[in-house]
Specification:
Length: about 270
C-alpha cells in the first residue's frame, strides 16, 4: 500500500526541484559576464537542485516515509538558501548595483515567491497540517493567478518589440489575469461567507478557462521559439518552464474541482508513476 505522504512529497519535490534548478540557469543568464561571484553561486544552486531532483527520482512510492521526511527537510534547507539568494539579487538590482544586467526585478521577485511556495509546501507535508479545502482553493488560486499574470508580462517584455501581434496577445493575457487576480482577492476578503460550493466551483471554472488558453499560448510560443520562427530574447527552456507551471495550476484546479464535487481524486502516486 503506497503511502500518500511519500507520493505527495515526491510529486511536489520532483516538480519544484526542476523548477528551482532552471531558475538558477535563468538568473545566471541574466547576470553580466563580470559578475563571476553571482554566476558561481547560481551554478552551485543548479548543482544542488539537480542532485535533489535526481534523489527524488531515485525514490519510489514504496520508499520509507522516514527517509522522505529527512529528504523533505534537506530540500527545505536548500530552498531557503535559494530564496535568500534570489532576495539578495533583487536587492542588488533595486539599489542599482547591477546596471546592465538582464534580470527584471519582477522576475527575480517572482522566482523567489515560487521558492517560498515550495518551502511552504514542504513544511505542510512534513507537519501534516493541510489547509481546509475552501481556504486552499482561494489561497492557491491567488498565488497561481499572480504567477500567470507575471508570466504574460515577462513574455510580452522579452518578445522583440517588432513582434507586434504576439506582444499584443501577451498583453491581453496580462490584463485578463490581473482581472482574475483581483476577483480572487475579492473572494478572499469576502471569506468565510464567500466559501460556498457554487461560488468556489464557478471561480475554478472561470480560472480554468483562462489558464487553458494561456497554457496553449505558451505551448505555441515555445514551439515557435524552438523553430526559430519568432524574434525574442526568450530562452526556449523558459517558454517550456512557464508552460509547465500553467499545467501544474490546471492540475490543481482539477484536483480542487474533484474534491469540491466529491468526485474521486486521483491519488498522487498514480500521477507520479508515469
Ligand atoms: Fe518558475
Ligand atoms: Fe513562474
Amino acid at each position: 500500500m503506497a503511502d500518500v505522504f511519500v507520493a505527495r512529497s515526491l510529486d511536489e519535490v520532483r516538480f519544484w526541484s526542476r523548477i528551482m534548478k532552471e531558475h538558477s540557469l535563468f538568473l545566471k543568464l541574466g547576470f553580466r559576464c563580470d559578475d563571476i561571484q553571482l554566476i558561481q553561486e547560481a551554478n552551485q544552486f543548479y548543482a544542488i537542485f539537480e542532485s535533489i531532483e535526481n534523489r527524488a527520482n531515485s525514490y519510489t512510492a514504496g520508499t520509507d516515509p522516514q527517509t522522505i521526511r529527512t529528504f523533505n527537510e534537506d530540500t527545505y534547507v536548500a530552498v531557503s538558501h535559494i530564496w535568500a539568494f534570489k532576495r539578495k539579487v533583487l536587492g542588488l538590482i533595486l539599489t542599482c548595483q547591477l546596471p546592465g544586467a538582464n534580470n527584471f526585478p519582477l522576475l527575480v521577485d517572482h522566482v523567489s515567491r515560487e521558492a517560498n511556495y515550495f518551502r511552504n509546501r514542504l513544511a505542510e507535508l512534513n507537519t501534516g497540517r493541510l489547509e481546509p479545502l475552501p481556504d486552499a482553493i482561494i489561497d492557491e488560486n491567488v498565488f497561481f493567478l499572480r504567477i500567470m499574470a507575471d508570466h504574460a508580462k515577462f513574455i510580452s517584455h522579452l518578445l522583440d518589440p517588432s513582434e507586434r501581434k504576439l506582444v499584443q496577445q501577451a498583453n491581453e493575457f496580462s490584463h485578463d489575469f490581473d482581472q482574475l487576480l483581483f476577483q480572487a482577492k475579492d473572494l478572499e476578503s469576502m471569506r468565510p461567507q464567500s466559501q460556498t460550493a457554487p461560488l468556489l466551483d464557478q471561480f475554478l471554472d472561470q480560472n480554468r478557462f483562462s489558464v487553458k488558453s494561456l497554457r496553449d499560448f505558451k505551448k505555441t510560443a515555445h514551439e515557435l521559439i524552438e523553430a526559430c520562427r519568432i524574434k525574442s530574447i526568450i530562452h526556449p527552456l523558459l517558454a517550456d518552464h512557464v508552460f509547465r507551471e500553467a499545467e501544474r495550476f490546471l492540475f490543481l484546479i482539477d484536483m480542487f474541482e474533484n474534491s469540491l464535487t466529491g468526485k474521486p481524486v486521483p491519488a498522487a502516486h498514480e500521477l507520479i508513476m508515469d
